[in-house]
């Protein structure tokens, strides 16, 4: 029976070296297609058409409760590989049983902005590091669902090599 996705149960955030980054919340990248407006003879109006396999610049933000050593490690201006390992909760439609699936999000990213946060007595500081993301790989139970790497002309979505035809046409 199909399973209904319900929630992210929990996750951990690691660096490429396996370093656990402590207590974090993460604003994940958005895949927003590059688009252009198509209009002219034969079209009744306009169409905002996406470009195959091309997305606007990706960004992500890692939030920390307070400024700390992990945050300072990440503001080093070099590429970092961030790995988020999570457990998703699903409910089986047939049995009603709750089940889990492993979620893995890998990002190759460079820091573009950091904030020490706010200073207030007995309160979290909401420190953060913002990244430019140039590689995004998402797997669910070990199966790649998104693999986007614009520097290497890779865009696989749901097991489909979206850029295969484009690569064939330009090589």
What does this entry look like structurally?
The protein is mainly beta and 171 residues long. 8% of the residues lie in helices and 58% in strands. It has two helices and eleven strands, in the order βββββαββββββα. Strands 1, 2, 5, 6, 7, 8, 9, 10 and 11 form a nine-stranded antiparallel β-sheet that branches. Strands 3-4 form a two-stranded antiparallel ribbon. The radius of gyration is 20 Å and the shape is globular. 15% of the residues are buried. The model has no long low-confidence stretch (mean pLDDT 94).
Task: Outline the fold blueprint.
Elements: E1 3-15, E2 24-27, E3 33-39, E4 46-55, E5 58-64, H1 69-74, E6 80-92, E7 98-115, E8 127-140, E9 143-149, E10 154-157, E11 160-161, H2 164-170
Antiparallel strand pairs: 1-6, 2-5, 3-4, 5-8, 6-7, 7-8, 8-9, 9-10, 10-11
What is the structure about, briefly put?
Helix content is 8%, strand content 58%. It is mainly β and 171 residues long. The longest helix has 7 residues, at 164-170.
Question: Could you list the spans in which at least 5 consecutive residues all have pLDDT below 50?
Answer: none
Sheet/helix structural class: mainly beta
The helix content is: under 10%
- Judging from the principal axes of the Cα atoms, what is the shape? globular
Topology, number of strands:
11
Give the N-to-C terminal Cα separation. Answer: 44 Å
Give the rounded overall mean pLDDT. 94
State which percent range the strand residues make up. over 45%
Give me the number of helical elements.
2
Rg, please?
A: 20 Å
The biggest sheet amounts to: 9 strands, antiparallel
Succession of helices and strands: EEEEEHEEEEEEH
């Amino acid at each position: 029976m199909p399973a209904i996705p319900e929630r992210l149960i929990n996750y951990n955030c690691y660096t490429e070296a396996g370093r656990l980054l402590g207590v974090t919340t993460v604003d994940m990248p958005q895949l927003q297609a590059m688009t252009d407006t198509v209009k002219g003879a034969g079209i009744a109006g306009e169409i905002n058409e996406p470009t195959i396999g091309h997305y606007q610049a990706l960004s992500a933000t890692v939030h920390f409760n307070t400024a700390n050593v992990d945050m300072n490690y990440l503001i080093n201006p070099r590429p970092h590989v961030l790995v988020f390992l999570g457990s998703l909760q699903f409910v089986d439609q047939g049995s009603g049983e709750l089940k889990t699936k492993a979620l893995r999000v890998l990002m190759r990213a460079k820091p573009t902005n950091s904030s020490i946060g706010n200073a207030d007595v007995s309160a979290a500081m909401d420190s953060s590091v913002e990244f430019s993301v140039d590689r995004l790989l998402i797997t669910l139970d070990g199966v790649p669902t998104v693999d986007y790497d614009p520097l290497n002309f890779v865009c696989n979505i749901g097991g489909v090599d979206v850029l295969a035809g484009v690569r064939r046409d330009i090589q």
